[in-house]
Amino acid sequence: MKKVLLFGAAAMFLASCGSGVEGERVEANEAQEVQEVVEATTLAANTDESSIKWVGSDVAGKVHNGNINISEGSLDVKDGNLVGGSFTIDMNSIVNLDVENEEYNQKLVGHLKSPDFFSVDSFPTAQFEITSVEAYTGDDAFTHNITGNLTMKDITKSITFPAAVSMSEGAVMATTAPFVIDRSDWNVRFRSVTFFDPAELKDQAINNDIGLEIALAASK
To answer: For labeling, which of 2, 81, 164, 200 is most exposed (least CB within 10 Å)?
Structure first.
């Protein structure tokens, strides 16, 4: 059985730079057209082996982390190369892993699902769709740049991040570098200095930065 493992970097609310979390900041650009790949082999995602880890912080230094499930997806392989793919994120599946008090844990998760953040009643899923995979010319640790459209809250932006892609018979593994996006580009507004006066928010502000750490496994 041909197996594909795609390990990405991603964590909701993971902040970089000023918040002290490592990761390359990537720009959110206009969505790109997805090119049809002819004669590619499509491999279905194994959702039991796939997940997204998230980490987030506010300006006061409080940090939370957890997981979100990938509900479905696929990867496209042609001539021994990763050439495309997509996956769907179940926003209702978000969990927190660091808060031990069950009542507060559920309160936090409920807030993340609310209109303040991801409005999961209105937007129960998010999606990522690969638009191109190109050779990487920088650090030897990486082999490709992966570009794709990330859709959250019905807003689609194109992002690009480096990845190390390795191939063996019947298997592919791609590991991305840590990267960070700005949540305000997807209208995630709560206590964001993009939408509210920093002087009023003071130490109640929540960092705009979002980092992603994704593991996607797929097989024929």
So the answer is: 200
